[in-house]
Each structure stands twice: as C-alpha cells, then as structure tokens.
Amino acid sequence: MDDLLDQYDLVLQAFWLTIQLSVLSGLCSLVLGTLLAAMRVGPVSVLRGVGTTYVTLVRNTPLLIIFVFIFVAAPNLGWFTDTAFLTLGVVTVSLYTSAFVCEAVRSGVNAVPLGQAEAARAIGLTFAQTMGSVVLPQAFRAVVPPLASVLIAMTKNTSIAAVFGLMELTGRMRYFSNNSADDTVIFLVFAALYIVLVELISAGAIVLERRWRAAR
Amino acid sequence: MNTSTVLFDTPGPRTRARHRLYALVSGVVLIGLLAWLVWYLYDQGELEYDLWEPFLTPAYLEVLWQGLLDTLAMAVLAILLAVVMGFVLGVGKLSDHRLVRWPSWLIVEFFRAVPLLLLIIFLFLGPAGLTSYWSVVVGLTLYNGAVLAEITRAGVLAVPKGQVEAAYALGMRKTQVMVSIQLPQAVKIMIPAIISQCIVALKDTSLGYYVLAPGLTTVGRQIWTEFGNQLQTALVLAATYIVCNLILTALATWAQRRLVGERKPIVHTIDPGMGQAGPGLS
Amino acid sequence: MRHIQKVRAAAVALALAAALAACGDAGDDSDEGADVEVQENAADEFDDGTRMKELADSGSVIIGVKYDQPGIGFKGATDDMPVGFDPEIGKILAADLGIAPEDITWKETISDNREPFLQNGEVDLVIASYSITDERRAVVGQAGPYYVTGQQLLVKSDSDIDSLDDVKGTEVCSVTGSTSLENIEAEGAKPRGFDTYSECVDQVLNGRVDAMTTDGAILLGYAAQNPDQLKVVVDPFSEERYGVGYSQDHPEMCEWITDTIEDAQEDGAWAEAFEATLGKSGVDTPEPPAMDECPAA
Fold it and tell me: In this complex, which of C3, C21, C195 lies closest to B210 when CB atoms are compared?
C-alpha cells in the first residue's frame, strides 16, 4: 500500500491512459461499427458480404492476436513505425470492437417493427422523416443495453494493451505487484479503478434508457 | 433476402439496376484491393517459402497441435468449472435469504467488472501463486462463472411461472421446485448460451501468453521468435481460432434450434453477441 | 445445417493440404553446448536430509531458464533443450548431482515469475539472468554471482543515442517487471514494458521504440544476431550480478552451488561454457567473478 501511495502519480497516469484508450476507442468503434452496420443492412450485396466477412473474422479472433498483427507484424513491414503507442492501441481496440458495435446496432435496427416504417411511409413521411422521427429513435432505445455491454467489455479489453508496451492500469499493476508484497491490496485498488469505469458506463446507459423511455 | 426492411422500400427495377452497378463498382474496388495486398506481400517477401515452412514441417505442426489441445483443454476445463460456479451463484442470487443473495451478487458483479487479464496476473503473481496453466483456468472460471450465473438466473426466470405454481400446488418445497422443476428446464434454455460462452473462453485462453501458459499463442510466439515470421504465424493462429469458433457457433445455432426453438434467446442484454449464439466480446 | 457442412469441408481440405504438403524441414540446425562430465555415485557425496541428496537420489532436477535470450538461454519451439550460458551452468550443477543433461527438466521463466517459481517449488533452481538484489534475497536464496554484467542500451546502427542523457523523452523498451525498466524510467525515458526480450528487440528493429535496455550480456547476443542493424551503446550504468536462485527452504544448497561453480571456474568448465555460448557473439571470456559468501545457516 505504501508503494501505491508513494507513487500515486504512476497509478494516476496509468488510470488516465486507460481512460484515454477507452474513450477514444469507444468513439472510433462507434463510428466504424455504425458504418459496418450500414453496410450490412444496406442494399448493395458486395458491401453486405464485406461487412459480414469482417464481422465474422474479427469476432472469432482473439483481440491479443489482432494486437500481434498491428503492434508486431505490421511494423515489421514498415507500417506504423512512427505512430504513437496510444494511437495504435486505439486503432487495434477499435478494429476489434467495431465488429461488436456493428452487431449491436444491427440488432437495434432489426428490433424496430417493420410495420412502423411502413406506416410512416404510408402516411407520406419522407425517407429523412421516417428515419429521424420513427425508426432511429426506436432503434437507439433498443441499442442502448447491448451497446453498453460492448463498451464495458471494450474498457476491460484495453487491458490487453499492457502486453504490448502500454503502461495502462494492468501494466502498472504488474509493475507494482512485482515490487511489493501487498499483492492483494494492489490488485483490489486496480480492480476498483476498472470497476469505477464500468459502473460509469452502466450508469450512463441507464440514464439514456430512462430518458428515451420517457419520450415514448 | 433483404426484400423489405425498415430502412427502405422494396426496390423497383431501376433502383435494383443501380444497386447492381454499386455492387459491381465496389466488387471491382474490393478485388483491386485484395490483388494489391497479395502483390504487396509478395513484393515485401512475406510470401516466401522460408517464412511459411514451419507450418509445413511435421515437428512444428505437432507443436502447434499440442498448443491447440492445451488451449482447448483449458477452455473446456474452465467452462465445466464455470458452469458449476454459475449454477451455485445464479441460484444464490435468486435466494430468499439476504445472506446468500448479497454475497452472490457481490461476487458476480466483481468478477464481471474486472478485466480477465488483471485477474490472471493476480492469480499468477499474487499470494495464490498458481502455475501459469491454473492461473488461466481459474481466471477463466471466475469470469465465465460470473457470466454464467447471470445466464442461470435468466434461464430460471424464463421457466414459465405456471410450472412453479403447479409444483408448489403439488406440495413441493422450495429446494425441490428449484432442483427438479426450474433448473432442468433452465439448463435446456441455457445450453446454447453456454456453448457461446465456450467461444469467449476459447478466445480468452490467448491471454495465457502474458503468463507463459501453454497454448496456441505461446507456441506461436516461440515459432516467430525462431523464424521472425510474425505475420505468417499470426495468420495461422487467427485461422485456427476462427475455424474452432465457427464450429462452436454452428454447434450453438444447432442447439438453439433443437433445444429452444425459434424463441428469442434469453440473454440479450448481458453480453454482446451471445443472443445470436455468436461469439461474445469477452 | 449447410453451415456445418461448409465448415467440415473446409477442415477436411485444410487437413489434406497439411498432410500432402507436410514436407518442410524448418529449423534443423541443432546447436549443442559444451560437454559436461557427469559425476558417478554422486548421491553418496551428500549428507542425508539435504536437498542435494534428494535430487541426486531422484535422478532429476527442474531448472528454470529463459527461452528467449540468445546466448543466455534460448529454445526454439521444437528444440528439446535450451542453449546458452545459463543452461550450461545448469548442466554443470546437475552433473555434480550425477544427473545427465538429458535428465534435466527445463522450465521457461520470465522476469517476474522467478520468485513464485522458487517459492512454490515449481523449479529447484533458477538460472535465468537473475540479478542478485537485496529485495530478492529477502524472499529467495541467490548463490553467486557466476557472471557479472551491467545495464546498457541496444539501438539501431544509425541511431543518435550514444549517452545516457540522450534517452530523456525517448521510448525505451525492456521486460515488464525487470529492474532495467525501472532504472531507465528514472533516467527520464518513457518505459515500454514487453513480455519478453525478443518482442522488445523486434520493436527496436522495426523502429517502434528508440532503444532497448537491459543487461549488456543479453544485448550483445541480439547485436550479434543482427550485426548490420543493431549496436550496443553506453558504458554499463549498473552492475548486474547473475546468481543461481534456490528456495529458502533449502539453505544448504547455497554452499553446494558456490563450491560447484568455483570448481568449474578453476578447472576451465566455466570458461568452456562461456566460449560455447556468449563467447560466440565476439565477447572475450572474462575473468570469472568471485563468488559471495553464503549466509550463515
């Protein structure tokens, strides 16, 4: 415990890095995942195939191996050699998470009853109006819980960046538990920091869900 | 298959022609990209036989095969233990006694929120001092057990209420109702979700890499340390994982049809992907 | 169902392809270390109740070494035995117990699992570029030093870094849990902890990090592997004294390890082991270091 208090700045730095990784990866994978979902539900068959293939391949590969591709294999080919570790970590986590975001968004869109859109079109709403006032609000509401799960899992998955040189929370815990006998205390402190992030996402999801439920 | 969706009307002949054009264009771009990629890899010398040779050499195939067996053994062992833990905690969370319910809730929430890698490192280096193999197995068990506890709870709650009421009406006691009425039916509903959880566990065995546990990724590292063929090794490992996971996905889909029917899967909000009997995000 | 069939067909095709093409013969150049003379009737030499007696009687010993440090301890995926200076020292010790090299069980250790391995008896000895420190001696026994080296930097041949001041603000990698990483962080470098040295070297080679730091002996091995691309710079800025780790449950092992290594230093086995391993990277065989006294039992 003394070690942690003496070097609290190292813990805070690590926490900040985990937050950066999570927030940036979260934003990137939301964008990428929505694009992928658009490809998968869109009318163009080739793009549907690309989207489906991407999701299938990425979802079935361990994130650690995707890290190997981006952090070890690609630089050997001369790619990303000047890219910051944080950026590359965000790229890796986003490539992986976007496949799951895609599925969450797609399930959300599919959760909107077909009749809703048909009715909207039948009463003469334009495509934009149909989307904006009928389909998307319902899709968002359906998408919040699975998306929250995805983002929580993603936050925990940023820990794998520790294996590839990023001194975020998990990397720091290893550093500290190597230098101290209070392994249990150290573990609980670092676990608590992750739990804070996870609970923040859960709380955010609950707030959003409530707000949109009231709008019904 | 997409004749009609919420997003757009069934396209007419002119739109269909336009979509065909888009498909053609994107297809050409895609083929161009793939061709460029192959050319690029060739140009960089990444397709040279030397770099792929280990994967055609019996001795290395044997090592990889052993790695795959270790990986599968760890995943299966962990899931079996996790099912037991999930049953205990899942039923515990449904208990009428606060002293049982609260600790169960706390354990489940804790192990679901802590990154598996952090847990594995703690088990490996901490006071538990487990071997690398058991750090991975126990870590996987604790995490997946917590997830399966939620699945158990959802499965038990998904059993129609009438069943329980009928059982009570017959004079069964609480434990009897749980053991002989609710759990057996819950298990049937849960099996596809459990198989999907196997996929998560299988993918997570790769974390053993960080603590030198046996398994595919550790073997892979030994190979690329020797030959400097990181890209090739990673491709082979990824392909191995994907094949295994697709087999499991097919199994889960089959079990879903066979045991649960077309009814919606039980656990939509707990872990992504699980609802579709697909791989979860870990 | 179509799904399953497709997968099955793919699996069969893969297996066939593997069977047909399984004719490669990668990685066939075996590299034997120096020969050791195995003591006969070794068990008689030790007193009853000592750990050495137990090991000699059982005819096997488990030694933890590194698998990813060329020159120090390295093992390919299909090799039976690791090669390097550390395994050679292990063979010398085992031979004194009457255990032939092929009867030694080798275990891979990484920097931060060496103490747990000794404490819970997963290995009998750790000979894995294991620097002697007071913190470590508080939890495990360390006999030695059998080799002395110091922390240096490994950089690309065209790098500008040539003094310790140059590392401020640069990214320097080493192994998570090593003292080297802490030392370089103290010098103002951004630490990049990796799992093993080999990954760290890859990062230097492909330019992701500016330098790698750890004991000179390890760096020289890598520099010798890639003489055109890598060089070792900076005078050693720490003293690392490699020791043999043993469990504190068996303090009697210290005297035995010290005596055996001193004998090997005198009769030339130590120098032979060095020349067959680290010496290959072009380092002259140094004077063997003087061993520490063992703590009074």
Answer: C195
Residues of chain B positioned with their CB less than 8 A from the CB of C203:
none
d(CA B133, CA B213): 5
Question: Which ipTM score applies to this complex?
Answer: 0.89
- Beta carbons of C116 and B50 less than 8 Å apart: no
In chain C, what residues touch B59 (CB-CB under 8 Å)?
Answer: 27, 78
Q: Which of residues 247-276 of B touch A (CB under 8 A)?
A: 249, 268-273, 275-276
Q: Which of C81, C109, C111 is nearest to C94 (CA)?
A: C81
* Binding partners of A (≥3 Cβ pairs within 8 A): B, C
| C197-C199-C202-C203 Cα dihedral, nearest 10 degrees | -100
Domain around C103: 42-148+241-281
- Summarised one tens digit per residue, pLDDT across range B124-140 is 888 877 888 999 999 99
C206 touches chain B (CB under 8 A): no
Q: CB under 8 Å to B149, separation ≥6 — which residues?
A: B85, B86, B87, B88, B89, B90, B92, B93, B104, B108
| C119 close to C139: Cβ distance less than 8 angstroms | yes
Distance CA C156, CA B151 (A): 53
Architecture of domain B55-276 in this structure: Orthogonal Bundle (1.10)
Q: Are residues C85 and C137 in the same domain?
A: yes
Half-sphere exposure of B54 (CA within 13 A, CB side): 27
Q: Do residue C269 and residue C249 come from a single domain? A: yes
**Per-residue pLDDT at C242 exceeds 80:** yes
Could you tell me if C144 and C156 lie in one domain? no
pLDDT per residue as tens digits for the range C158-217: 988 888 888 899 999 998 877 788 889 888 999 898 877 888 898 898 888 999 999 888
If asked whether residues C176 and C112 sit together in one domain, one would say no
CATH number of the domain residue C131 falls in: 3.40.190.10
Nearest C-alpha neighbor of C253 from the set C35, C84, C61? C61
Q: Measuring CA to CA, how many Å separate A21 from each of A151, A168, B152? A: 12, 9, 33
Contact C10/B at CB under 8 A: yes
Rounded mean pLDDT of B26-31? 94
Quote the CA–CA distance of A16 and B29 in Å, as a whole number: 41
In the predicted structure, residue B263 carries a pLDDT above the cut 60: no
Q: How many domains does chain C have?
A: 2
Q: Are B226 and B247 in contact (CB under 8 A)?
A: no
Q: Tell me whether residues C176 and A174 touch, CB distance under 8 A.
A: yes
Q: Note whether C126 and C177 are same-domain residues.
A: no
Q: Which tops the pLDDT comparison, C297 or C289?
A: C289
Instruction: Tell me: do C156 and C197 sit in the same domain.
Output: yes
Q: To the nearest whole angstrom, how far is the Cα of C193 from the nearest Cα of chain B?
A: 12
Tell me: the pLDDT tens digits for B179-216?
A: 898 988 888 888 888 888 899 999 999 999 988 888 99
Place of tokens 């140094």: C286
Residue C129 · residue C72 · CB < 8 Å: yes
Q: Which DSSP helix (H) or strand (E) runs through C2?
A: helix C2-21
